[in-house]
Amino acid sequence: MNAIDWSQVPKNARGQVDYAAITSLVARVMVAEEELTRLQAKLQRHYDAHDALRLSDHNLAKFHRLEARLIRRLEQWQGLLAQ
Fold first, then answer.
1. What average pLDDT does the chain have?
2. Under a CB-based contact definition with an 8 Å cutoff, are residues 35 and 27 in contact?
3. 25, 30, 51, 70: most buried, per Cβ within 10 A?
C-alpha cells in the first residue's frame, strides 16, 4: 500500500508539510512526490478552460514557487537515495 495518510504527515504552524520532522528519506521522497502530484493537478485545473477553479495571481505565483522548491528537493533527496 503506497497511499499516504495525510492526517499523519507532520505539518508546521502554517499547515505545510514539515519535511524536517520526517526522519526517513524514503518517506520524505514519497510525501514530496505525492505533494508535487497534487500541486501540479491543481495548477493544471487552473489552466483548464473548462474547469471552474481559478487561482489569484498571488496564489498562482506561490504555487509555482512551491512547485520549483519541491522539484529541487526531490532531485536532491533522490540523489541521496541513489548513493
1. 91
2. no
3. 70
